[in-house]
């Protein structure tokens, strides 16, 4: 039996030296948050409808999907300045970075493709046609495969990075939104928004091995819409944003059991976990806020104002 805990608006011990970046989908901005004080320190203007956000491997830049500008923007973390745009294909929504930091794989929702961007050359390296409405992107830790989630086809599409070609597909539950590899590359966790599940896929066989379902007391099943998925650094726990259920689930990875449900803001989209594994920051799209979750105690310890419709979250040490 998992525990359901109430939200709190109090602070616990701070996380030193970390900065949180939150994309605001309707605000065309990024909210910058000091992880120690849990207060916003800046708001940066970026392109239209920013969603996906990821830190460059050297930690100097943020890559941001400016979906309605059909570009990926490179932002200087030191100044908040948009340095340049990368060609991304039409309507990039999310992306994943290769282990060496050279290739950025962006999902192009409107034209059913994945665009591989060479970030050093600032050019498209190649494109691969995938399923209808690709959204989530993941790259295997060994750098061999990129995986996109097709919302309409209810499938994963596996791209062989070496051959630059489609290598296979995996059927999953309805409307997959996010995919996340474990650090060792032996599991791929996929959220299915309409299916209301998270599924575990074996990359060796490309088959679903486990399906995890969620029951939130007092919440109608149709409001349980899993989207963002993140692992704690020790890989023992998995956090899942449950969308309109307004909760984040904490799962024990080994047993595949939900151990806690944490109430957060309205329409939680994505989240990120601090390097020490003690906290998670969750973007609440309809509350214009970020919930700070104490993972150990499974409770919200602060709520931070953000811009309009927070969507993506990245953490820099």
UniProtKB/TrEMBL annotation:
UniProt-listed Pfam families: Lactonase
Coiled-coil features, chain-numbered ranges: none
Transmembrane segments annotated in the record for this chain: none
Matches recorded under InterPro entries: Host-pathogen_enzymatic-act, Lactonase_7-beta_prop, N2O_reductase_N, PQQ_b_propeller, WD40/YVTN_repeat-like_dom_sf, YVTN_b-propeller_repeat
Gene3D superfamilies, alphabetized: YVTN repeat-like/Quinoprotein amine dehydrogenase
This protein's name: PQQ-dependent catabolism-associated beta-propeller protein
């Amino acid at each position: 039996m998992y525990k359901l805990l109430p939200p709190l608006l109090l602070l616990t011990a701070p996380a030193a030296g970390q900065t949180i970046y939150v994309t605001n989908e309707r605000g065309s901005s990024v909210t910058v948050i000091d992880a120690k004080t849990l207060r916003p320190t800046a708001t940066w203007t970026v392109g239209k409808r920013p969603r996906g956000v990821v830190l460059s491997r050297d930690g100097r830049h943020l890559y941001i999907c400016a979906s309605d500008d059909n570009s990926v923007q490179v932002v200087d973390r030191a100044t908040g300045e948009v340095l340049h745009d990368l060609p991304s294909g039409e309507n990039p929504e999310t992306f994943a970075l290769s282990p060496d930091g050279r290739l950025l794989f962006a999902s192009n929702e409107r034209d059913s493709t994945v665009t591989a961007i060479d970030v050093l050359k600032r050019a498209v390296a190649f494109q691969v046609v995938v399923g209808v409405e690709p959204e989530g992107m993941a790259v295997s830790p060994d750098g061999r495969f990129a995986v996109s989630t097709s919302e309409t086809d209810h499938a994963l599409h596996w791209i062989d990075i070496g051959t630059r070609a489609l290598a296979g597909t995996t059927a999953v539950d309805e409307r997959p939104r996010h995919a996340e590899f474990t650090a060792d590359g032996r599991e791929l966790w996929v959220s299915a928004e309409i299916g209301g599940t998270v599924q575990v896929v074996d990359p060796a066989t490309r088959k679903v091995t486990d399906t995890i379902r969620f029951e939130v007391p007092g919440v109608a099943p149709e409001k349980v819409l899993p989207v963002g998925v993140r692992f704690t650094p020790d890989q023992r726990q998995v956090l899942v944003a449950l969308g309109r259920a307004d909760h984040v689930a904490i799962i024990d990875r080994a047993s595949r059991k939900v151990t806690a449900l944490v109430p957060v803001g309205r329409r939680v989209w994505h989240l990120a976990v601090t390097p020490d594994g003690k906290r998670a920051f969750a973007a609440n799209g309809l509350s214009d806020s970020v919930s700070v979750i104490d993972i150990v105690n499974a409770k919200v310890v602060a709520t931070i104002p953000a811009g309009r419709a927070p969507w993506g979250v990245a953490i820099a040490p």
